[in-house]
């Protein structure tokens, strides 16, 4: 199995997907050719529920201009399925971010037929 994009895009919807090993059930992300847990090649694609918690984060400030988007938060998110993902946090003030904060995926178009996973606070 050749690694592929972690987000499947269709005109109607996007899905956050990851690999799960059919031999040992280890979640693999980013996509690989062999399981990180047991080296099996029995990897299968699964759809993530897109919910997790913030493991760590940093706030990037670019003072060159005052344009929107000069400040953004980059985070490592622990997904409930058992893998970690580097992403951006959106729709949250930097002072509100904390370890363990519950988040959910927000798939956003960033170009023609390209969708990227961002994460927002999970207020449910």
What can you see in these coordinates?
With 124 residues, this protein is mainly beta. It is 0% helix and 50% strand. It is built from no helices and nine strands. The strands form two sheets. It has a five-stranded antiparallel β-sheet with strand order 7-6-5-8-9, with no helix packed on it. Strands 1, 2, 3 and 4 form a four-stranded antiparallel β-sheet that branches. Strand 1 and strand 2 form a beta hairpin.
SSE diagram, text form:
Layout: E1 7-9, E2 14-21, E3 27-28, E4 43-47, E5 51-61, E6 71-79, E7 84-89, E8 102-111, E9 114-121
Antiparallel strand pairs: 1-2, 2-3, 2-4, 5-6, 5-8, 6-7, 8-9
Give me the strand/helix succession: EEEEEEEEE
Radius of gyration: 16 Å
The strand count comes to 9
Class from helix and strand fractions? mainly beta
The helical percent reads under 10%
Strand content: over 45%
Shape: elongated
Strand order of the largest sheet: 7-6-5-8-9
Instruction: Look at the structure and give the mean pLDDT.
Output: 86
**N-end to C-end Cα span:** 37 Å
Regarding quaternary structure, what we see is single chain
Largest sheet: 5 strands, antiparallel
Unreliable stretches:
1-5
The tally of helices reads: 0
